[in-house]
Amino acid sequence: MSFEPKIVGFLCNWCSYTGADLAGTSRIQYPPNIRVIRVMCSARIEPDFVLRALASGADGVLICGCHPGDCHYSEGNYKAMRRYPLLKRMLKDYGVDNDRVRLEWVSASEGQRFADIVTDMTERVRALGPLRIKTDLQTDMVER
Amino acid sequence: MARVGVFIGQFHSDSRIAFDSLASYAANLRAVEKVRLLGLRPKVDVKSLAEEIRRERLDRIVLAGDSPGYFKPAFTRALELAGGDPSEVRLASFREHGAGSVEVTDRAKAVLACAVHGVPYPLVAVPKPTVVHPATLVVGGGVAGIQTALEIADAGKQVYLVERTGTIGGHMAMFDKTFPTLDCAACILTPKMVAVHDHEMIELLTNSEVISVSGNPGAFKVKVRKRARRVDSSSCVACNACTEICPIWVWSEFDSQLTHRKAIYIPFPQAVPNAYLVDPEACAWVQSGGTRCGVCVKKCPKECINLGEQDQTVEIEVGNIVLTTGYDMLDAAKVERYGYGKYPNVLTSLEFERMTNASGPTGGKIVTKTKQKNRRLKVEEWVADPKGPPPRSVAIIHCVGSRDTNYNPYCSRVCCMYSLKFAHLVREKLPGAACYEFYIDMRAFGKGYEEFMERIKAEGAHVVRGRTAQVIEADGALVVKGEDIVQDRLVQYPVDLVILAVGLVPATGTAELAKLLGVPRDPDGFFSELNYNGDPTYTERGGIYVAGMCQGPKDIPDTVAQASAVAAGVLRSISTGGMGNLDSLTLSDIEERAAKMQVSER
Amino acid sequence: MEELKIGVFICNCGSNIAHHVDVDAVREAVEAMPGIAIARSYKYMCSNPGQEMIARDIREHQLNRVVVAACSPRMHEKTFRNACRNGGLNPYLCEMANIREQCSWVHSDQLAATEKAKALTNAAINRVRYHEPLESLTAEMCPATLVIGGGIAGLTAALELADAAHQVYLVERTATLGGNLARVDLTAPHLDSARDLLTERITRVRANSRITLMLNSELQSLAGYVGNYAAIIRTKNGSGEVQERKVDVGNVVVATGYQEFDAGRITHYGHGKLPNVVTSFEFEQMLRKGRIETRHGKLPQYAAIIHCVGSRNKEFHPYCSRVCCMTALKYAHELKSANPACYVSDIYVDMHAFGKGHEDFYKTTSEVKTLFLMFEKNERPVVRKAGPNDDCEMLIEVNETLSRERIEIPADLIILMVGMEARADSGEVARLVNISQDQEGWFMESHPKLDPVATTTDGIYIAGTCAAPKDIPDTVAQARAAAARILGKIAKGKIEIDGVFAEVNEDRCSGCRMCNELCPYSAIEFNDQTRRSHVIPAACKACGACVAACPSGAIKGRHFTVEQLHAQIDGVLA
Amino acid sequence: MAIRVNPKLIDELETYGAADVQNCYHCGNCSATCPFSKEPFVIPRRSMRNLQMGLEEKLKGTFEPWLCYYCGECSQQCPRGAEPGETMMSLRRWLTSRYDLTGISRLFYRSWKAELAALILVSLVTMVAFLVMGFSLGHGSLGVYAGAGALFPDHLVHILDLALAGLLAAVLLTNAIRMWWLTTGRNRNLHISLWSYVKNVFLLPYHFLFQARYSQCEKKLPWLTHLAIFLSWVTMEVLVILLLERFHSPETVWAAHVFGYLATIGLLGGTIYAMVGRVRKRETHYKHTHPTDWMFLILIAGAAFTGIVQHASYRWLGLDSVANIAYLIHMMFVVPLLAVQIPFSKLSHLAYRPLAMYLATVHTDALASQQAGAAQTEPVRLAA
Description:
The complex is a heterotetramer.
Chain A: E1 7-12, H1 16-25, E2 34-39, H2 47-55, E3 60-65, H3 76-93, E4 101-105, H4 111-128, H5 134-140
Parallel strand pairs in A: 1-2, 1-3, 3-4
Chain C: E1 6-11, H1 23-31, E2 36-42, H2 48-61, E3 65-70, H3 73-86, E4 94-98, H4 100-104, H5 110-129, E5 137-140, E6 145-148, H6 152-163, E7 168-171, E8 186-187, E9 192-193, H7 194-207, E10 211-214, E11 217-225, E12 228-236, E13 242-249, E14 251-254, E15 259-260, E16 277-279, H8 280-289, E17 302-309, H9 324-338, E18 343-348, H10 358-367, E19 371-374, E20 382-385, E21 394-400, E22 405-411, E23 413-418, E24 420-421, H11 426-433, E25 460-462, H12 472-492, E26 494-497, E27 502-504, H13 514-518, E28 524-527, E29 532-535, H14 545-549, E30 555-557, H15 562-573
Parallel strand pairs in C: 1-2, 1-3, 3-4, 6-7, 6-14, 7-10, 14-25, 16-23, 17-18, 17-23, 18-19
Antiparallel strand pairs in C: 5-26, 8-9, 11-12, 12-13, 15-24, 20-21, 21-22, 27-30, 28-29
Helix pairs in contact in C: 1-5, 2-3, 5-15, 6-7, 6-12, 9-10
Chain D: E1 3-4, H1 9-16, H2 29-33, H3 45-53, H4 56-60, H5 73-77, H6 84-99, H7 104-110, H8 112-137, H9 154-185, H10 194-199, H11 203-210, H12 212-215, H13 221-242, H14 244-248, H15 254-280, H16 291-316, H17 320-344, H18 349-373
Helix pairs in contact in D: 6-7, 7-8, 8-17, 9-17, 9-18, 11-18, 13-15, 15-16, 16-17
């Protein structure tokens, strides 16, 4: 049986989560590997959540927010946009492949786009195989 | 003062308007120089008309009649040719303002007077505001009644919701999925039903009917007959003990006669109030005056069954009455050529809705009816058995009894979309089955409807333009015969199941209720709104509103919008006084106001 | 931490969930977990018996946490929070797992869908362990309302509210009221006067003291939250200079209407090139002026009406614009009335005569001998100039479906039934009032059936054609529906706000003030004495940006705390 | 190549009786219900569509209206009251006027006053001709009915009958040939073998005599009344035109008279039944009556009645002069009936109906063989 990656998706409530729901009402099928966690805004996602997910067994993390300018809180997605490159550079040092963590903008009416992103990301992470460096990530976690 | 010419013409041959008395009334209005009767569908010669206007030096033309709009372009052109201002052609439409018959000639005169003064009739025809009792009566517990009741109650005003059957929810509760988003009807409706049940400002009167209304707008006294439920709904927890023991089987109305229910029954598990009730016509105890059966009384663990309970009459005082009585389906057997009633596997759309419903008689499985011996009633009957054979091919026929001068001349507006939904359900639940859909015009006009239609066609349903002429039985299978207009050939498809999208008619009892309340109805039997464009949810009778299907066929989003719109009128009338009856205004009132009224057009 | 008693309720949602997710397997998997007091499944959790089951279980099993695995929280989170409240449990101790829109509806493989449902439910259980009881806030509800758009929808909503003795600010961008309806002469199907309808509404609006009318004005900005919005309106007065005015309102009704499809975009209709090809609005002009003739004054002997210009096709707009069919039938009658000798052809795709009295109107149009020609929606007709020996100005060539012939229709005057599309600037309006748009640019309602006039943002309502194409009666009904919701809220006087705002933990805060500028709603103020930052509950919109950014982790995002999210991450990967 | 739409045709057809065809919104109900509607001739919707759109060439090219025997099933079921049955009836009248090259038929259908005037004119001319022939040429006297010195000697009348019959046959034949040319001859896409023409020739007499197709209708009574009128008319024609002398000679055996009596009863009974039906307007096919239908019925009834009066007064009562006058009036009914009705009006259907059935079979064979040959034929395109 081929490797089934586990992908954690952080979706903002107003745009991407609604888009994912729209994919549901339109019955657009996409791979079940993604498991969604709802936050109020993409600005709420701390880099630490991504590390936590990767440490707890996720093979990939997808962060979704509203298209720039559409954010329900007007500038939340800009903050996520600023934190993301720093996170990606740090992850490279831990040997986490570039395709494993992605930031995408999905609006409330883009059900099809959400499904395509999930399908594409699942294929890429499946190609990369399981993430083996879970253990050392655990110890470096800053306990709060 | 403008010199006015009044031309009175008639478009519909069946309108009974007192034209000559109107002509004489118009003649002695001060500003009117010329009055001419044009008769039925006159062929107006624009040149001679322009000549007449120039000769009479007319500045303003008033076109009066049942639907004067049909003649307006010709008169506008004539006035323009005569050098006048083309915007000075005014309409006095009697049909639009409910003055289409002899009995209301005074109102026709009022409408004419307003047009002569260049003032819209609704602007002046505003009855004196009346003090309005804060309570509201909502007649009909479907989605429209529920929505209106919640909107009014949420604003802190008392609502009495009267529902004729044992539960609220109406027809929408019977559906499984709703177009175009295919989300489940229960997920939308049941939470609202719970909200009605828990709401302290809503008094729910199920199994009840309005029997008399007196008083005037803003202060109605309504008598409501609460038919005995014979089960105490506050203590009953719907544990089903009584229904198992009850020996009487009758066809279940809620399941559109697909299965049976007992004499003591609950329409559907999620009913509100969530309690059982006794069907007096079926119950042996009630019919025999208490001498036979009554086994359920002992069986009930909480002793909430009292078969001897008598009907009560309750009198309530309300300021406004909202009519949300919904619809019924035309008797499909009337359209004999489709064989409903003759062939068991010809179903109406409501029966198919129940069949596809997950909590319905077949648990959502689409099956053909099979002949089975009913042990209880010792008779052979056709039953939709969940384990029965699924159909290999299904035909859905649109416009059964709709858009047809022999039955309902009007379009029932929702059948195209729910038929597409059926085609989707058939393709989804029976992947191998072929599905044929016969339509005349595919009316997918709402938000997301066209895209929904394209999706269904892409899923492989054969959508045939051309209404089926007849359904006949040939060697065991039903055969639908029709003409495929687009392919320009006759078609005959053997099918195992035929679904008739039967036309909609006003709910039974609408006629009596209309007479009771004095609310006029249109030729098709639906309640007439005060004004087609301006006030679709008001009626001529002050303090009486209409919403949803009872005013004309419409889908759920439009029904919910109308239901909320009614709540606006009710809440406003409670806070600042409501509208009296339109005919409480005298002709002279209107004439004075029209003369003095300053209008602004931009 | 008190002893956890979690109740898990899994919904079948009829067959919507049960069709692909094995609900019993999920229930059994959940039952064995620590802290689970009761795990049940039922056909419709959101129904009366479903909600009563939750309330009864809370009382009987003294549950202190509830997880409902059913549809999306955006649909019924409020419903299940109420159920918990009825059972005596703080509503914020309830968490939903979305195993319908994001599981059973999108994964057809039953095994995978069930596994995912278990994971999502497990995540919700993990998360709910860390939930804390919260109290929602109440805020005053300002009775004034801002109505954007002076068309029939805006006028009706404004009147409905003003007649109920509430202040209304009616903002209209142009100098006149009436919107698109002001350009129409008669309405279908009864050919009543559109002008009388507008005159009545405009006269009543101008005469109503409670309506502050602001013409040549636009909404500049909108701040605050439901019940407490501060709107800045910019007005250009006669001499061109601009004034700004701040108004305080409780709710906003967006009624900005639509714009007509530019017929020039379909080249082979020749609009703009051939003189006698006019759009429906241009024809309305001709009707009002009484000059129903070709450009060089000839009475048209042949007239043709083409439907679905810009609507119902892949290139331009896939949706149906809903009102043009009946308008076309109206034009057929008006052409015949102005010039009885005129032969009218009506070239359509499907005749959408669905409303009250529409089918009769369609029949009377047939009776006056209008020739109805049908074409396939993606094979549009082509218009070209007629030859010298033709007795007409133009010829329309099309594959006619009802006779399967390629025909050529004579026409001296062609009327294009242009469809409706979202206004070009609807994007700005959406951003200003914080509502979302669908692919075609129409404003999105929160739910077409549950709530057709409300939007995802509390206190912002949409009415009329700005949400989707619709005719006058439906527009008026929606305008009044929006007014009804607002009247309902005003009557209650107070508004309940979710208690999920952020909170600064004083002893961890280092006073770095980083969060102060970060907050888009400046809801965090700095206390100079205690050198600590402090969140203003009413102003905080709970976006959580500050919580994530605080270097010392001193800000707690209530209901979205770090512990809750960490637990949810672990749960979803278990 | 696009065909030009002509919205004016529908106005013209209104004078032929198609008053409601514009109400049809093409639901296909009528074509599916019609018992005779079978591929490749799907009636009545296709013809109605061509009429609505004014495709005159295509309409002239179809003989589908002749395949409809007006059982009225479609008109009853039509949801829009577009009267498909009556439209097909009007199309038959229109086609009759199209097949007639002289244009007289078109004149008659468009204004019934013209046809009435023509009828009266012809009957007056006949009267004058007979009187002149009778008195001056033949020196007959009013008192003598048969034999020598008869006002209207048999042999003269016989010659006149034969001449008239020959002339009418010629006119009818040219119209029939034109009908063949319009529907089949000019259609290059259709290759009909000579053999299939010959093979099916038997259909002409078969349908002419028994109206076989009419009998397939569900309700048999309309077919039977039509058959009664038709057979009586044929027998009368045979007796009067072919066997005139023998029929009129005194010693003709009573058997001939029995036929005569039966034919008269058939004619009188049938026409009266039809006229009563058209007055009461209960059956759908009697709901709409075009003036030409009235004239047609009145002429036949008149001819039959005066025939009996002439026969009775001569045979039974022996009043020769009354017989002569009755005979004259009889001729004033019969000659216009034949001279006007056959070539230019309703009676010409006696030729077109059987020809239509014949052509239908020939077309079907040709299409079937063509279909079998070619993979998929393009829909039938007519030459411009």
